[in-house]
Amino acid sequence: MNIYNIIRKCLMAMLFLLNPLLISVLPAYAEPHKLEAEYLLRITQFVTWSPQLFTDPTAPLEICVLDDAHFQKSLENVVKGRKIGYHPIISRLENNIYKLSTCHIVYITTAGDADRVMTILNSLKNKSVLLVSNIPHFIDQGGNLGFIYQKHGIFFEINYQSLNMKGLTLSSKLLRQALRVIK
């Protein structure tokens, strides 16, 4: 490992320690899928799911990635060994949209077929599943949290109205960090 990589990793670690959501200032040369995976991990700290959504007090919190094995592998590396409370965080690749209702978070990495995205949004509309994507205008379509790329990094938007319909609770800390919130 060269000195450049060591310095970069030290700077990234310091940023994460200073503010768990301060990922938006990470260097532009960082790989987008790794940034999004880090964001997903940190966002889990600010969402509250009903205890009834877990089969037992130590059941895993499942983050499902739709149709993107490369991103799922990055996410798996990020969440490995991590927990939210007593719930270990696991990632799962899912290709069947009808199995997404068993997930706590669903991440849709590409726009793909617009009809398929709308089918997913409609089928999970009243389920306590956090829907996250990097699709432009995702929260305007009914998604819960959308990643936005701008010149200086990655940011996010929140559709608070759709989250309320699902019974998911977000920390005010997360809401304050959002670039835009639909109330």
Automatic annotation (TrEMBL):
Query: Which InterPro entries does the record match to this protein?
Result: YfiR/HmsC-like
Name this protein carries in UniProt: Transmembrane protein
Origin organism is: Beggiatoa alba B18LD
